[in-house]
Amino acid sequence: MSAPFEERSGVVPCGTPWGRWYQTLEEVFIEVRVPPGTRAKDVHCSLQSRHIALAVGGRELLQGKLFDSTVTDEGTWTLEDRQLIRIVLMKTNRDAGNCWTSLLENEYAADPWVQDQMQRKLTLERFQRENPGFDFSGAEISGNYSKGGPDFSSLEK
């Protein structure tokens, strides 16, 4: 079980006109398709705690207030194969109950089914962290998993 949970269990992406976004307990990943041959010098990316702006060749692709706050110093972007920009944002609030329902405050919301799947995935990721000897990557979950699922921390061991 040395591979990260999301690599073993897959991700739940939310499609957008420019690409997709998905999340783990700690991070939000944004993948933006750009014209083949794009160079890093053509990319302008501004990552702030609650704001993001991305332009390629002077054309704005993504701009607005993020759904929740992020750690500014931890945000990164990379240009992959000169046709995909991958942005990684570190969530400030990293518990399973902090499932972003949209990327920006009023844009790129996940549909209800995708939101449900995202919340299930984050809850299973939380269970994996709390129980490192078990593998939850192929598990199914039902019942009370909203807001991160049940809290067992007060139970005696």
UniProtKB/TrEMBL annotation:
Positions the record marks as coiled coil are none
Q: Which UniProt keywords apply?
A: Acetylation, Centromere, Chromosome, Cytoplasm, Cytoskeleton, Kinetochore, Phosphoprotein
Q: What compartments host this protein?
A: Chromosome, Centromere, Kinetochore; Cytoplasm, Cytoskeleton, Microtubule organizing center, Centrosome; Cytoplasm, Cytoskeleton, Spindle pole
Membrane-spanning intervals of the chain: none
Q: Which CDD domains match?
A: p23_NUDCD2_like (cd06494)
Which parts of this chain are annotated as the region Disordered?
A: 138-157
Task: Report if keyword Cytoplasm is assigned.
Answer: yes
Please give the biological process terms from Gene Ontology that the record holds: protein folding
Q: Does the keyword Cytoplasm apply?
A: yes
Domain CS, first and last residues per copy: 14-104
What does UniProt give as GO cellular component? centrosome; cytoplasm; kinetochore; spindle pole
- Extract the GO molecular function terms from the UniProt entry: unfolded protein binding
This chain's function reads: May regulate the LIS1/dynein pathway by stabilizing LIS1 with Hsp90 chaperone.
Q: How does it assemble?
A: Interacts with LIS1.
Report the protein name in the record.
NudC domain-containing protein 2
